[in-house]
Write a structure and sequence with these properties.
heterodimer, A: alpha+beta, GIY-YIG endonuclease, 3 domains, 5-stranded antiparallel beta sheet, about 55% helix, elongated, B: mainly alpha, Rna Polymerase Sigma Factor, Chain: A, Arc Repressor Mutant, subunit A, 10 helices, about 0% strand, disordered N terminus
Chain lengths: ~250, ~200
């Protein structure tokens, strides 16, 4: 056994993670190597220093009503969702309201087509293919797209698929910053590899609203996934567009 | 509030039943999950941030994220693993936002003061501050593995599950992290290593 290897094993030995066979081998090495014997003593000291320091350092107990606080926050979230639903229900249960809204939309659309009021903004959107409405993005993936999911909370399944990392711009519009495919999304996006990527994306995009959209393709070939990936790349040109001052 | 150690119950059938019921809208089951894991999550977050306030905020955020993720949560996925991953993410984000990963300079200076006073409690506090301040010198893998194993007592198999990695890989990161911390401690407190 070489000293470099012995140092790794010593660091594991002091934490009780060394297998029996490795221990026997390490013991033999230490009997003939004074440097590694000294390293063992030092690692034991360091372990004790860390353990003693940690033992005396504990967080304050959570307040006794912690779970009630969490449940109150959950109720707030539910209330917000209900309020959004009630807006939707206005149109579901009141056809007259939907009719008035649709009529108003037609007037606005007619204005937009006959005047230049909205044209300049539309041109900006058209000339910036990397931002896309969710519905259009879904269509680009042949409607197989699921999401958008919060990148932190999403559990990548152990299935093949193509995924896009998207950043919310405004409303239902997203910017595709990255697109890739994998035969096993779970291992490909395993922690913490992907979170390091994510952090990099947040910094480069200047945004925290990072989501993932995924098209699961069970039993698909790499070639077919790559083909979808390339189509999306060609159409939307994923990448970072730094905002002003970024 | 002292609660049962969530890790011991992690992945049990009771976990699966609770999360399945919570997905179906049973808020009592959701609250039970909160009670079961809150202390453990609070502890992990504290080991990273060194602040009880931050740890409590992180714990709260983790459970809100769980609630928001319920509709897409796969009950086959181990709840504890999901919760601990989100806790780590939130803790690291918290430190990044507050620039605490770069705190060693400050801690080293506070540790200097300690040699003037013999107060053992203060000495230990400064040592843990120093150790926590050394974490930025480790890679992210090494840092997380060290905190989970040596500060929080997770086994290497449990950490491997959280990382979605192999236990052997975790052990290598752990060994390198310990070697680095030992070197930094020895440079800072040579007297504690004398005669070794």
């Amino acid at each position: 056994m070489k000293c470099d290897e012995a140092r790794i094993k010593i660091a594991l030995y002091v934490g009780g993670e060394l297998e029996n066979d490795d221990y026997e081998e390490l013991l033999k090495h230490i009997q003939h190597c004074s440097r590694c014997a000294a390293e063992l003593d030092e690692m034991k000291s360091a372990k004790t220093i860390v353990r003693d320091a940690i033992t005396d350092d504990n967080p304050a107990d959570l307040p006794s009503d912690f779970s009630s606080q969490v449940m109150a926050d959950v109720d707030d979230i539910k209330a917000r969702v209900r309020s959004k639903d009630s807006v939707r229900r206005i149109f579901v249960f009141r056809p007259a309201a939907a009719f008035v809204f649709a009529a108003a939309a037609i007037v606005v659309l007619a204005l937009a087509l006959t005047t230049d009021i909205f044209k300049s903004e539309d041109k900006i959107a058209d000339s910036d293919p990397s931002t896309v409405e969710w519905g259009n993005l879904k269509a680009a993936f042949n409607n197989c797209l699921e999401g958008p999911y919060d990148l932190d909370s999403w559990q990548p399944p152990s299935e093949p698929g193509v995924f896009a990392v998207i950043i919310k711009e405004n409303g239902d519009r997203y910017r595709i910053v990255y697109i890739d495919e994998s035969g096993n999304l779970s291992s490909f996006m395993a922690y913490p590899w992907y979170r390091q990527r994510k952090n990099d994306m947040i910094v480069r995009a200047g945004s925290e609203d990072v989501f993932v959209a995924v098209c699961l393709m069970p039993e698909s070939s790499k070639k077919s996934r790559k083909s979808i990936e390339q189509d999306i790349k060609d159409e939307y040109k994923p990448g970072f567009k730094l905002k002003d001052g970024a | 509030m002292k609660q049962a150690n969530g890790r011991l119950k992690a992945g049990t059938s009771s976990d699966s039943k609770l999360i399945a019921r919570a997905i179906d809208g049973d808020m009592r089951s959701f609250e039970e999950i909160v009670n079961m894991y809150a202390a453990r999550i609070n502890s992990i977050a504290y080991r990273f941030t060194g602040s009880s306030e931050d740890a409590r905020d992180i714990a709260q955020e983790v459970f809100l994220r769980l609630y928001k993720a319920l509709k897409i949560f796969d009950p086959q996925f181990k709840l504890s693993t999901w919760l601990y991953r989100i806790t780590l993410n939130q803790s690291i984000d918290c430190l990044r936002k507050r620039g605490r990963w770069r705190s060693r300079e400050v801690n080293v200076n506070t540790a200097e003061v300690k040699s003037a006073g013999p107060d053992v409690e203060t000495e230990q506090k400064q040592r843990i501050d120093f150790i926590r301040g050394c974490l930025p010198d480790l890679s992210e893998h090494q840092r997380v593995v060290l905190v989970l194993r040596d500060f929080e007592g997770f086994t290497t198999d449990e950490i491997a599950e959280i990382f979605g990695s192999k236990p052997g890989t975790i052990r290598v990161h752990l060994a390198r992290a310990r070697i680095k911390i030992k070197q930094l401690l020895k440079a800072k407190y040579p007297d504690l290593f004398e005669g070794k």
